[in-house]
Amino acid sequence: MPPVKAPRSAVDRARAVWRFFGRGLRDFDTTASLVPSSPFLVEAMLRPARLGAARCVVELGTGTGTLTREILARVGPACVVYGVELDPSLADATLRRCADPRLRALRGSAADLARLLEPAHLGAVDAIVSSLGLSLMDEEQRASIVRAAGLALGPGGVFMQYAYLHARWFAYSQARASWFRWRARPFLERHFGAVDGELIVANLPPAVAYACRAPR
Ligand SMILES: C[S@@+](CC[C@H](N)C(=O)[O-])C[C@H]1O[C@@H](n2cnc3c(N)ncnc32)[C@H](O)[C@@H]1O
User: Fold this and answer.
1) Within 6 Å (CB) of ligand 1, which residues are found?
2) pLDDT for 19 beyond 60
3) CA angle, corner 155, sides to 122 and 86, nearest 5?
4) Domain count, the chain
5) CATH code for the domain of 157
């Protein structure tokens, strides 16, 4: 009997997980994780964004495209989706896994969002979905990213961000070679007038998905 071939999607996912794991081992402070987001976290990040009605969506930190694929599955045919990724090899992986005419996969930093977006979309984005490891950044860097996101959002737009639960008590920075603590909610509340959180225990590691509205 010929060997049973694994379905293409399973092989593709295994490759993506492996690639992400490799990047994470090399530069954990940038990837902020060793594995892509679980389907439970993806759902919690995308449900509040009401993507079906969106005309422009931005994803910050596409990694290997786990959230990107699901965003593309939920938005309408005329929606423009920007996928911003700092790591060139991960940006390439997003493009390979998510070939779609609605996707503009961009290599660059989320802090440069104003420059990366077309002028017509600046101030008119319906949802920004961020899986950046804010806890591992310094305060100035994370504040500049969140401010750039606030400026890009349109009226009624939502900024989605997750944070790993354990960072409230302990987290480790490879680059600084030190342990630290970081709480996402007070930081997000300094930048947005309304912040709601949903705890996702079934993620590795458990995380809170925050929906932030009304940039200050
Ligand atoms: C925790 S991973 C999330 C990957 C994927 N979205 C997921 O949920 O599985 C964070 C991603 O953000 C990227 N990243 C880190 N800093 C960034 C920045 N300043 N601008 C854009 N992407 C960045 C990393 O390279 C990494 O791919």
Assistant:
1) 30-33, 36-37, 60-63, 66-67, 84-87, 90, 109-111, 131-133
2) yes
3) 40
4) 1
5) 3.40.50.150
